[in-house]
From TrEMBL:
Residues 158-181 form the C2H2-type domain. InterPro entries: Znf_C2H2_type (IPR013087). This is C2H2-type domain-containing protein. PROSITE patterns: ZINC_FINGER_C2H2_1 (PS00028). Residues 930-940 have a biased composition (Basic residues). Residues 941-950 have a biased composition (Basic and acidic residues). Residues 917-982 are annotated as: Disordered. It comes from Candolleomyces aberdarensis.
């Protein structure tokens, strides 16, 4: 690099510093890398070509990233990229270690005394971070411009007084207000145009500060001096020519020079002009002048495409132009289809030179999709020509596709029109639509006449997704023919694309690079059957299995948890669940509607339940009058504790499936059954309007970014909620007291607090998202034959809601919707379409999706509900519609005779389930392993056990149901004298550690096997 090209003084020794008064200097070493040094107010390196400050530890990365960059220039009132790239001044750098070289050179010349004086990304030289280096304390407001740094005009300022925040984007100002001025941003306008230009030290650590000068300047920055072009190799020359042709096909877009260009550089967008270019303009440039390149060794061979190919491209563009609005609306779904293939085309065609798997913007997505359409339709036409009976080798060649006679006929008809000297556009578009309909939507889908080929493109999926009412249907609701094509497209993409090129469809083109990109497979509806890559799910089967599981969980609780003391309906009437009263304003610590954090977990319902167990002699409960203790059977209690864990794992999928649009697993793990602290509300509630219970969730994944916390109401059907209510109210106290004896001493305080506040905890262990996913996966695999996870069921629920939810706007519900719409738009009359669009937004909010995500991923045209009004009335409408679509009743409804008979059969089976001898031995072995005790000698252990039984044995008269039973009593508590009494369940303790989690899983497997053996014809039971 010539020294004369640098505008800053060159320093050769420390003495020159006395004669040079500038703030920016350079040395011969710095100049070789295109760097200079800013001396005041910081000692920091500058890249004089990029006009950016560079922290010392970022020098190597900056120089490497600028290799062979093509700088955009200001031409004809717009930013444009030159045809041939100008080599960057950094191309001569080989390897790294530039930072060490620069530091040593500055110290040697005496410019800096210590290496630590140079500013790094971790230190700004004033004790602060580099990111905060541009605060007003460091730069007076406004400060003189720092030499060597770029000036940005048309900047924006935060409108809040006394806020020193500048940026280059209006959206950034809005995000800044919401994050740092929440509650004040409504008092000020959206943004304020800065009166001064701004600067920043480093674009990756952008903190802008105003400088002196006028912000009304326009035009480009001073262009850097020309750098002599290096001699290019033939291969590089071919690459530059191909890039030049691509740039000539893309229109230039007029924009603000400085702010627009460098704003895109900050966002790391490689082609910013594609973001703003109109799709119609890009498609209109697809004319006959576009040429096809074929790279052959060291020379460039320019060829014009065949006339039929040009006509086909014209037809595709015409059809695309007719559906531009639809393409823009569903561009993200097109992107998903393209990325599912995992293909990266590297053909020499100018209109195909794009990587399909990196499409981002609407323009680039449709560009890739249209190029792909032209290419694949041309291949299909060539295939049809080769399959003609008169074609040589027609019986042996072209085995890539398996087409029916009708499809071949329409492809030949289309090719005949394309070969005409004068293209008939009307006839061509009609033939094109007929050919596509025959290819991708065959009327006869019978196995003998099906025309599903192994590698189909996704042609015209978007243009055929138009409903009669004008509303589009997203690709997840596609027809079975398209769905099958999409699936095979994803599976056979790699092999088939290689077959196409081996068949010489594009003579002279190199084989493409094929890359596997893992994406979630598409799902589609065929009537009431949902097709996924894992299997098929029938809605009728899902509803019936869901109801069957509800009956089984009721039978399991009645038999194994309530110990046969009564049915669920009996408990509902006994404890008055239908008449619950929930004081939602009570913020006292430990208060809850289904559980109360009292000493000993005591409540009236549990006391009554415990008394019923003692009176019936269940679990070996009895009073030892001599010691004033409540004794029990340890083995029976261990089995009961394992049943409680199993019952909660059976109950969770039903709660997750029926709570309305499901939330995330991280949200469910935070559910609180009581107020953890004073003023912090619980999540488990009773809704008097819906006459059922559920959860009031204030968890939202994007709350930290948006600054808005939405309350989401999730209610389950009454019968499922009553089971969860009894689990928390009468089962949890006894479970918690007994399970606490099985955990380590140093963990008992934590586990005790978790039992009092958390919903999902069992066996003395808090649940994780893995437990939630495993429960759903076990249920779906055994009931439906597919393996669901939390994420996959969220995907299913979105498709289910899109297809099945039907909202009924009546009475106060329609008034609440209209009231919300009044806030959003000033209209007196609300149409049904507007209400439906608004309710779709409520559904997506309950699922945790923003309207933008819902619109791009699931094809919803929604209205942003936001957090402006209380959505509980609308959420109740969604929940009622969701329960109706599942075939469940939201409020209490007694079982019919048929359902009661089915539940009785399940209950009889559960009554027969007992632990085997192997389970007993594993249980005691797991107890020893969990407590950390060493395995004892069997004979010694047996003697100790017998001796203990002699001391603690007590007999009671036989009852009508049971014979004489021996029970074991444990000590009242550590440090407590025998004979002392404790309140309620406080006397229930265990002297032996119980069953481990692994053994409990083995017990569940045994239950499954016995259920399958005892199932009767016509009434198949779902294993647990």
């Amino acid at each position: 690099m010539e020294p004369s090209s640098c505008p800053f003084p060159l320093i050769s020794c420390a003495d020159d510093l006395n004669t040079v008064g500038g703030d920016v200097i350079t040395t011969s070493c710095l100049l070789s890398y295109g760097l200079c040094l800013l001396r005041r107010p910081f000692t920091i390196l500058l890249c004089w070509r990029c006009k950016d400050a560079i922290p010392l530890n970022c020098v190597d990365k900056h120089l490497k990233s600028e290799k062979w960059g093509r700088t955009m220039v200001w031409q004809n009132g717009a930013w444009a990229r030159p045809a041939l790239g100008t080599p960057s001044p950094h191309v001569a750098i080989k390897g790294g270690h530039v930072a060490e070289t620069v530091k040593a050179n500055l110290v040697e010349l005496g410019i800096i005394k210590e290496e630590g004086e140079l500013m790094t990304a971790k230190d700004d030289g004033t004790g602060g971070k580099f990111r905060e280096a541009a605060v007003p304390q460091c730069f007076p407001n406004p400060s003189p411009p720092l030499p060597g740094l770029r000036l940005y005009t048309d900047a924006f300022q935060c409108p809040v007084p006394e806020c020193s925040y500048w940026c280059l984007s209006k959206d950034t100002v809005k995000k800044h207000r919401q994050k740092y001025h929440n509650g004040q941003h409504a008092l000020y306008p959206g943004y304020k145009v800065s009166d001064h230009p701004v600067q920043c030290l480093y674009s990756n650590y952008a903190r802008y500060f105003p400088v002196q000068g006028s912000a009304q300047t326009s035009g480009p920055l001073p262009a850097p001096e020309e750098v002599p072009l290096v001699r290019l190799s033939p291969a590089d020359l071919i690459e530059h020519q191909r890039q030049a042709m691509l740039c000539s096909l893309v229109p230039q877009v007029a924009s603000q020079p400085e702010a627009d260009y460098y704003r895109h550089l900050k966002d790391r967008r490689l082609q910013p002009y594609l973001e703003s270019s109109k799709i119609e303009g890009w498609l209109s440039r697809w004319d006959d002048r576009a040429e096809v390149f074929h790279a052959r060794q060291d020379h460039l061979d320019l060829k014009r495409p065949p006339p039929a190919f040009v006509n086909l491209r014209r037809l595709v563009v015409l059809v695309f132009l007719e559906n531009t609005a639809l393409l823009e609306k569903t561009h993200h779904n097109i992107q998903l289809m393209l990325t599912n293939s995992g293909l990266v085309f590297d053909t020499p065609c100018a209109d195909l030179h794009c990587s399909l798997h990196i499409t981002r913007s609407r323009a680039r997505t449709i560009q890739a999709y249209s190029a792909y359409e032209v290419h694949m339709l041309w291949v299909l036409c060539q295939h049809a020509l080769a399959k003609r009976p008169s074609a040589p080798g027609s019986k042996t060649r072209w085995d890539v596709f398996q087409l029916a006679a009708e499809q071949l006929r329409w492809l030949l008809e289309l090719h005949k029109i394309l070969e005409a000297k004068v293209l008939d556009e009307a006839a061509g578009k009609a033939a094109l639509r007929q050919a596509v309909a025959a290819l991708y939507f065959p009327k006869d889908l019978s196995p003998g006449n099906t025309s599903v080929f192994d590698f189909p493109p996704v042609a015209y999926i978007i243009t055929t997704i138009i409903d009669r009412d004008g509303a589009y249907i997203h690709p997840h609701l596609m027809t079975p023919g398209i769905a099958k094509l999409s699936y095979s497209f994803r599976v056979h993409a790699n092999w088939q694309i290689a077959q196409l090129h081996r068949a010489a469809c594009t003579p002279g083109a190199p084989e493409p690079q094929v890359e596997n990109v893992v994406r979630e497979g598409l799902s589609w509806w065929s009537g009431d059957v949902l097709h996924t890559e894992d299997g098929e799910i029938s809605l009728a089967t899902f509803r019936s299995k869901l109801w069957q599981s509800a009956l089984e969980i009721e039978a399991f609780y009645e038999s194994r948890i309530f110990m046969g003391l009564g049915s669920l309906d009996d408990f509902i009437k006994l404890f008055g669940v239908t008449e619950l009263v929930d004081d939602l304003n009570n913020s006292e610590k430990g208060f809850g509607v289904s559980h109360e954090n009292r000493p000993g977990h005591k409540n009236e319902e549990f006391s009554l339940f415990l008394q019923m167990l003692v009176d019936g002699g269940h679990l070996g409960f009895a009073y030892n009058d001599t010691r004033s203790q409540l004794v029990y059977d340890v083995d029976a209690m261990d089995t009961w504790l394992a049943d409680v864990d199993l019952a909660l794992r059976m109950l969770y999928p039903l709660i997750h499936f029926t709570q309305g649009p499901p939330g995330r697993g991280t949200e469910e793990l935070t559910l609180q059954i009581t107020n953890p602290e004073r003023g912090v509300k619980r999540n488990v509630i009773w809704d008097p309007i819906m006459q059922t219970g559920g959860f009031n969730c204030d968890y939202q994944k994007t709350s930290a970014r948006v600054g808005v916390l939405s309350n989401i109401l999730r209610l389950v059907p009454f019968r499922i909620f009553s089971i969860a209510h009894f689990h928390m109210r009468i089962v949890r106290p006894m479970e918690a007291t007994y399970a606490l004896m099985k955990v380590k001493q140093n963990q008992r305080i934590t586990i005790s607090a978790a039992y009092s506040t958390q919903f999902y905890i069992s066996n003395g262990r808090l649940w994780t998202t893995e437990d939630l996913s495993t429960s759903i996966a076990n249920w779906s695999q055994r009931a439906l034959g597919v393996t669901w996870t939390l994420r996959s069921f969220r995907h299913f629920s979105a498709l289910f809601a899109r297809k099945e939810l039907q909202f009924e706007f009546t009475g106060p519900e329609v008034e609440s919707v209209d009231k919300a719409l009044d806030i959003m738009q000033a209209k007196e009359k609300k149409s049904q379409v507007e209400r439906l669009r608004y309710m779709n937004g409520i559904v997506d909010t309950m699922r945790g999706h923003s309207p933008g995500v819902a619109g791009t991923h699931y094809g919803r045209e929604v209205a942003d509900g936001g957090a402006r009004v209380d959505h509980r009335a609308q959420q109740r409408v969604v929940i009622r519609a969701y329960h109706k679509a599942l075939g469940l009743s939201t409020t209490y409804r007694p079982l019919g005779d048929e359902d009661a008979a089915r539940k009785e059969k399940y209950r009889e089976r559960f009554d027969k389930l007992v632990l085997s001898e192997e389970d007993e031995e594993s249980k005691w072995e797991g107890a020893r392993n969990r407590t950390g005790k060493k395995k004892k000698n069997k004979k010694k252990e047996k003697n100790e056990k017998n001796e203990k039984n002699k001391q603690n044995k007590t007999c009671r008269p036989p009852s009508a149901k049971q014979g004489p039973t021996c029970r074991k009593s444990g000590p009242v508590a550590q440090g407590q004298e025998p004979g002392a009494e404790r309140e309620g369940i406080g006397a229930l303790v265990s002297a032996v550690a119980g069953m481990s989690i692994e053994v409990a899983a083995g017990v569940r497997d045994r239950y499954d096997s016995e259920l399958s053996e005892s199932s009767e014809d016509g009434d198949e039971a779902i294993p647990l």
